């Protein structure tokens, strides 16, 4: 293990972390210190994959992926929120601002290949910064402004040319997913709109959240009889059919958005019904007893075909579940045991390479010889998620502009030129190498709907 000498936080955990290095992460779920220590190991391992703070490197950029930078900083903000360990705070602020473009996460280096879902993960990270009152650089965009910038650029792309509405997956005509509407793009904007409504108390955001929800359930993407959520629908047949692939983050993002709407509405019965049904569906499908009631990406883990994106999905869900437990208190007792078993499984997987490297599968009780950024990030998320506590839930719940949040608002943020992603043309030559660094691509969808050629071009 690298030395832990870089700790310079107000954390009370220091003595424990200077203890002799153990062979594996010994997770004691009854000890906040033990959980925080596990999170610190996973965070450290994650950051060995990040070179953006080194000379000549680009802050916020990870190798062969752009969207995961947003997910990484989100995880690190949450880690700080629950542990007080500020080791990575400077890198978070620098990276988040560096990639911000004109305040809307359409940075010119990447913007030709960004999908709505890719941009959204940075927007959700910025929203997290506002809600956790994470330190800001007063000379740069505020966290809230950045989240509003993403919201504004995305609602301008709301597409009524087919299917009665909805967000396309991709922004640009030259991207193969341009003619598809998918769950994560719509569910991402739904979640962001709900969180903006709750933070700002501005009803316009809530109306958008409801509109996106209404549209989503009007298509086969979300079935409100079975509470199943598909991955994507095609504009070619006016979104009349849906695939049968099930990804945990599609469920998680709609569940999270519904939870924020529940909280925003001071406890609406309709949103609570959505939360309860989607929570049950998420647990039944992705935390099933057949996988030891541990979070599992069932569409790819058992068959060992997960791509980089897919390894991260369940980590995102773990983090969302933790906040759902805090803002929909009636779900707390249901959610916590699932997070606990998942963290225990993750810890058992973090025994690789003699240095606590984490694997993909959390349900096997052992390391599966996998190694990577996404493995570390997912483990980090499920560890900090276990630092929620019923007795002081409101101390860790996301704040609003009335309850301690002071991030500056700019309702028209991000609407400058070059950001709309409508029909403006470009003369840029698109190379295979560029595409390889672009957006989220779901392998099974790509193979099934687009064709395998595109998949080989655009892994991340
Ligand atoms: C763990 O060891 C492997 C193999 O030596 C190395 O690639 C990896 O960077 C190490 N991880 C950490 C967190 O030190
Ligand atoms: C970059 O951050 C890592 C921690 O993630 C730290 O160990 C390293 O010293 C930093 N590098 C620079 C050049 O600041
Ligand atoms: C754009 O890419 C160049 C070349 O890699 C890099 O130097 C620069 O920092 C990047 N800019 C942003 C905003 O990421
Ligand atoms: C496509 O679906 C929308 C929403 O259900 C509907 O309003 C519209 O009439 C449909 N268009 C066609 C051409 O079927
Ligand atoms: C959403 O659907 C409900 C029920 O059909 C309707 O009452 C409401 O006006 C719709 N809201 C928006 C913003 O479309
Ligand atoms: C929730 O309750 C607060 C405090 O009573 C009130 O100010 C706010 O308007 C309510 N929100 C909604 C959406 O009804
Ligand atoms: C969710 O599952 C729990 C436990 O099985 C059950 O008690 C509850 O009624 C379910 N809720 C809904 C809305 O189906
Ligand atoms: C909303 O979340 C807060 C935590 O910020 C919690 O105290 C409150 O009870 C939640 N509201 C409802 C209606 O559950
Ligand atoms: C919340 O409760 C946990 C467990 O008792 C404790 O470790 C933590 O310090 C508390 N945090 C706050 C802010 O009260
Ligand atoms: C928000 O509050 C923090 C902590 O009190 C403070 O450091 C920061 O300057 C405030 N930001 C704004 C925009 O007022
Ligand atoms: C509420 O949000 C909408 C949409 O961004 C914006 O047009 C409006 O100005 C906002 N209202 C206030 C009072 O901030």
TrEMBL record:
Residues 398-431 are annotated as: Disordered. It holds the Pfam family Glyco_hydro_76. Gene3D superfamilies: 1.50.10.20. It catalyses: Random hydrolysis of (1->6)-alpha-D-mannosidic linkages in unbranched (1->6)-mannans. Its EC number is 3.2.1.101. It is found in: Endomembrane system. Its main location: membrane. Keywords: Glycoprotein, Glycosidase, Hydrolase, Membrane, Signal, Transmembrane, Transmembrane helix. Residues 407-431 have a biased composition (Low complexity). One of its GO terms (molecular function) is mannan endo-1,6-alpha-mannosidase activity. GO terms for biological process: carbohydrate catabolic process; fungal-type cell wall biogenesis. GO terms for cellular component: endomembrane system. InterPro entries: 6-hairpin_glycosidase_sf (IPR008928), Glyco_hydro_76 (IPR005198), Mannan-1_6-alpha_mannosidase (IPR014480). The chain crosses the membrane at residues 438-457. Residues 1-24 form the signal peptide. PANTHER family: MANNAN ENDO-1,6-ALPHA-MANNOSIDASE, MANNAN ENDO-1,6-ALPHA-MANNOSIDASE DCW1. Belongs to the glycosyl hydrolase 76 family. This is Mannan endo-1,6-alpha-mannosidase. It comes from Talaromyces atroroseus.
């Amino acid at each position: 293990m690298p030395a832990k000498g870089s700790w310079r936080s107000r954390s009370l955990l220091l003595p424990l972390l200077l203890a002799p290095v153990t062979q594996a992460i010994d997770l004691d779920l009854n000890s906040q210190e033990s959980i925080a220590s596990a999170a610190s190991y996973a965070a450290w391992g994650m950051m060995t994959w990040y070179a953006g703070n080194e000379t000549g490197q680009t802050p916020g950029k990870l190798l062969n992926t752009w969207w995961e930078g947003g997910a990484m900083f989100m995880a690190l903000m949450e880690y700080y929120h629950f542990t007080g360990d500020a080791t990575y705070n400077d890198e978070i602020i620098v990276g988040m601002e560096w990639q911000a473009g004109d305040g809307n996460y359409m940075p010119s280096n990447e913007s030709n290949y960004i999908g709505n879902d890719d941009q959204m993960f940075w927007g959700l990270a910025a929203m997290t910064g506002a809600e956790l009152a994470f330190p800001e650089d007063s000379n740069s965009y505020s966290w809230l402004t950045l989240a509003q910038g993403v919201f504004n650029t995305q609602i301008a792309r709301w597409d009524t040319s087919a299917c009665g509405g909805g967000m396309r997956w991709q922004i640009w005509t030259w991207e193969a997913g341009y003619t598809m509407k998918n769950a994560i793009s719509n569910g991402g904007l739904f979640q962001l709109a709900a969180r903006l409504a709750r933070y700002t108390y501005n009803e316009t955001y809530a109306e958008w959240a409801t509109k996106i929800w209404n549209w989503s359930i009007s298509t086969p993407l979300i079935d409100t009889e079975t509470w199943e959520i598909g991955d994507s629908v095609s504009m070619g047949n006016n979104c009349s059919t849906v695939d049968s692939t099930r990804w945990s983050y599609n469920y998680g993002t709609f569940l999270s958005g519904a939870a924020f709407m529940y909280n925003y509405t001071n406890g609406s019965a309709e949103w609570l019904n959505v939360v309860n049904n989607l929570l049950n569906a998420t647990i039944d499908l992705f935390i099933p007893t057949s996988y030891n009631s541990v979070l599992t990406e069932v569409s790819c883990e058992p068959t060992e075909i997960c791509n980089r994106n897919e390894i991260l999905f369940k980590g995102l869900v773990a983090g969302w579940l933790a906040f759902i437990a805090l803002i929909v208190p009636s779900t707390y007792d249901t959610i916590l045991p699932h997070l606990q078993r998942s963290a225990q499984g993750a810890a058992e997987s973090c025994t690789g390479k003699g240095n606590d490297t984490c694997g993909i599968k959390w349900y096997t009780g052992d390391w599966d010889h996998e190694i990577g950024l996404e493995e570390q990030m997912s483990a980090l998320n499920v560890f900090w998620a276990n630092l929620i506590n019923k007795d002081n839930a409101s101390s860790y719940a996301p704040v609003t502009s009335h309850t301690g949040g002071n991030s500056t608002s700019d309702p028209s943020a991000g609407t400058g030129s070059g950001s709309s992603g409508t029909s403006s043309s470009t003369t840029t030559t698109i190379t295979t190498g560029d595409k390889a660094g672009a957006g989220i691509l779901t392998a099974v969808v790509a193979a099934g709907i687009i064709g395998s050629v595109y998949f080989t071009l655009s892994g991340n």
